[in-house]
C-alpha cells in the first residue's frame, strides 16, 4: 500500500480538512470543538498554507453579553 496512516480524533481530522480547503476559519472558543480551533491557531502561527498555497486567516467569534 505504501500510504501513511495517522490515527486522530474527529476534531483534529475536521481541522485538517477545514484548514486545507479554507482561506478564512471562524472559531468560537470554549465549545466542544475547541481542539479544532487550537489546531488551526497553531497552523496559522506556523505560517502553514492551504492546498491552494494561500494564507489562512482566523477570525475568533465572540458571544454577545
From TrEMBL:
GO terms for molecular function: oxidoreductase activity. InterPro entries: Pyruvate:ferred/Flavod_OxRd, Pyrv_Fd/Flavodoxin_OxRdtase_N, THDP-binding. Coiled coil: none annotated. Keywords: Oxidoreductase. Residues 18-61 form the Pyruvate flavodoxin/ferredoxin oxidoreductase pyrimidine binding domain. GO terms for biological process: response to oxidative stress. This is Pyruvate flavodoxin/ferredoxin oxidoreductase pyrimidine binding domain-containing protein. It comes from marine sediment metagenome. The lineage of its organism: unclassified sequences, metagenomes, ecological metagenomes.
Amino acid at each position: 500500500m505504501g500510504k501513511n496512516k495517522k490515527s486522530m480524533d474527529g476534531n483534529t481530522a475536521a481541522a485538517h480538512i477545514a484548514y486545507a480547503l479554507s482561506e478564512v476559519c471562524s472559531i468560537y472558543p470554549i465549545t466542544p470543538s475547541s481542539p479544532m480551533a487550537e489546531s488551526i491557531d497553531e497552523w496559522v502561527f506556523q505560517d502553514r498554507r492551504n492546498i491552494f498555497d494561500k494564507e489562512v486567516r482566523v477570525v475568533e467569534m465572540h458571544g454577545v453579553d
